[in-house]
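thought: fold this chain, then report.
action: predict
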Amino acid sequence: MFTKITQWIEENDPYYIQRIIFHKTLYGVVIIAFANWIFKPVSFYALFFTGILAANIHMGSMFKTNKQKEHAIFLPYITIIIFGTVLYLAFPFKIYFIMGVLSIFVLLHVLTYFYLNIYKPFVPLLLNCILLINNSAPQEGSLQTVINFCSAMLLSLFLALFIYKTFPNKYHLVVRRALIIYLKVLRQKVDNLINNKQESLYPSALMNIEVVQNHIHLVKRSLKKSYYRIFLFTRNIFMMLAVIPIQQDNSTNQELLKIRDLLDNTIYALKNKIALNDIDFAINTNSKPVLYIYKNIHRISSSWNFVCKK
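observation:
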């Protein structure tokens, strides 16, 4: 039973992305629930829904660096505190409230269109969160309610930063899995060359390239450079395999068999998180693409062994 469940998870989440999101969300919900039990903020909506919104923005794939993700945490809190307070104080005056909602909607769209384009998809979510929190508060427009609202928001901001800083960085797992699948595509390409089979593998390769490019900037600093090198060397091999003709001589075919074995060893090492053994790269070939492929496999081996030492 557990084997089938594991297989199903691997089939539906081959890059480990959804599991990271699930673990981070579960961790965040537990922290927020514990904080709500300890501090008992007046506005639970301000504490909980703003934290969920910040998590959604923070996990957006459009943020390429950790610095951008840190900025993405502050944005919903600053926006909701400012505009939420304005709308709450204007609520007793229906005309001003309607004008305020429309003005905030237009202002957020203008700001995201001209200055913060990366946040444009989140404007409707921000506005919905503002209205939901306002609707949950007493509507007499008191200053004490505003203070309670802001204190709950600041507590939520502190918890969001705490969750972000304390949750372990697992993005190297995403990159490693994408590289393994990318290497399997290369292995299939070598098989096609050996068997004189013509099959386009560009869609599979490009999909893995995109996954690596979207997540490699989020890998922790001690591993980022090595993983980036492995990615570059793997991409070099793919480009060299593309220039080797389908019909080749017997010596080139023998070299391709060796390359396939080396790729199998590399895939096994990355999958099982073990270092690669030293390989004899003193080969005799007149094919420049084949020689270039050997050199890049050697570079992948060196970079991966460095990762294993960390």
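thought: worth noting. The mean pLDDT is 81.
final: tokens above.
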